[in-house]
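Q: I'm building a small set of examples for a reading group on sequence design. Run inverse folding on the following structure and report the sequence directly after it, with nothing in between.
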């Protein structure tokens, strides 16, 4: 833990800590808050989007652990622990569920070790410090903790919009999904720029934490070759949200697409 804290640079904003700020958490620093406020100036409903993104995660994990019978999860870009973490949602449905979390912020590792402990009798939770840009490293380490002969739920929640086109997010998804057995599932959300001006989209790309907002069609390509479940690639505010309390936010307020897809 001391080693992680030594590598923590609080003067540079990080997506996990900025997201924590939008969710009303306390595990963030001045640089994260400054970056977060700059995004609010461009996209005032970002806090609504962050909350809806967590609700989408909850609904998707409930589906996988419940109706679809998934008992293993690989959550890449997990962020700082908050309410309804993947293992908490899964283990409410199926206590034996196991989760491997992956993030590249040392602060996340500090909190993960302290907070992401499974309840007595529940399946194990693990944490890897790694970057989604290195799928081979993630797969190699995850295979030490998950059984790759059985289906796995792959979580890529609000992480791929930090990957530039030249870093090939579509190839990253393909490499990860090709390594998983048939009957696994991909759960993915990704911010879109379709509700912002071109100037705002460009500002996001050149900000302190570059965000690569993509079109609905570009996000849809992330699911190529997979069997996308109903209702398809839609706004996080609309994905199987019939039981969520109203009024529901408009898709322009969340500006984030999502889907759940089966790996064949």
């Amino acid at each position: 833990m001391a080693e992680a804290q030594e590598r923590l640079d609080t003067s540079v904003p990080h997506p996990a800590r900025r997201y924590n700020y939008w969710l009303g958490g306390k595990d963030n620093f001045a640089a994260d808050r400054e970056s977060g406020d700059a995004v609010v100036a461009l996209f005032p409903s970002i806090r609504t989007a962050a909350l809806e993104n967590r609700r989408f995660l909850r609904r998707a994990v409930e589906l996988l652990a419940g109706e679809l019978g998934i008992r293993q999860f690989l959550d890449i870009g997990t962020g700082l622990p908050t309410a309804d973490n993947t293992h908490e949602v899964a283990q409410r449905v199926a206590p034996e569920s196991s989760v491997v979390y992956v993030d590249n912020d040392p602060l996340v590792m500090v909190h993960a070790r302290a907070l992401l402990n499974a309840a007595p009798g529940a399946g194990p939770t693990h944490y890897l410090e790694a970057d989604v840009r290195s799928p081979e490293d993630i797969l190699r380490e995850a295979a030490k903790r998950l059984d790759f002969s059985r289906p796995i739920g792959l979580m890529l929640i609000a992480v791929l919009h930090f990957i530039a086109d030249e870093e090939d997010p579509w190839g990253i998804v393909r490499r990860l999904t090709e390594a998983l057995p048939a009957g696994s599932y991909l759960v993915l959300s990704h911010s879109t720029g379709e509700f912002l001006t071109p100037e705002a989209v460009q500002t996001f790309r050149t900000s302190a934490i570059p965000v690569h907002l993509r079109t609905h069609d570009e996000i849809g390509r992330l699911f190529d070759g997979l069997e996308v479940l109903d209702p398809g690639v839609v706004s996080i505010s609309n994905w199987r949200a019939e039981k969520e309390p109203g009024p529901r936010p408009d898709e322009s307020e969340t500006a984030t697409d999502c889907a759940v897809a089966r790996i064949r």
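The chain has a mean pLDDT of 91.
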